[in-house]
Amino acid sequence: MYAHFVFRWPEGATQLHVSHGTLTGPKMTLWTDIKVAGRWSGAVLADFARTWATAHLAKFAR
After folding, report:
1. Where are the domains of the chain?
2. What own/partner pairs with CB < 8 Å and gap ≥ 24 does 2-9 have?
3. Hey, how many other C-beta atoms are within 10 angstroms of the C-beta on 15?
4. What are 7-60's pLDDT values in tens digits?
């Protein structure tokens, strides 16, 4: 499931966009206003995305 979330964080922005799909294929926008703290970098985005996806999917655990 992790691979189906696409996180886009434009450089300099304080919010990122989360879509469902793939990096190079079609995407369905899910959220466009997710606040992200920290300086723009791949490492910050990767850590944020892992944490966000884990917390989001935990909402559906039984």
Report:
1. 2-58
2. 2/50, 2/53, 5/49, 5/53, 7/45, 7/48, 7/49, 7/52, 9/36, 9/40, 9/45
3. 12
4. 999 999 999 999 999 888 888 999 999 999 999 999 999 999 999 999 998 988
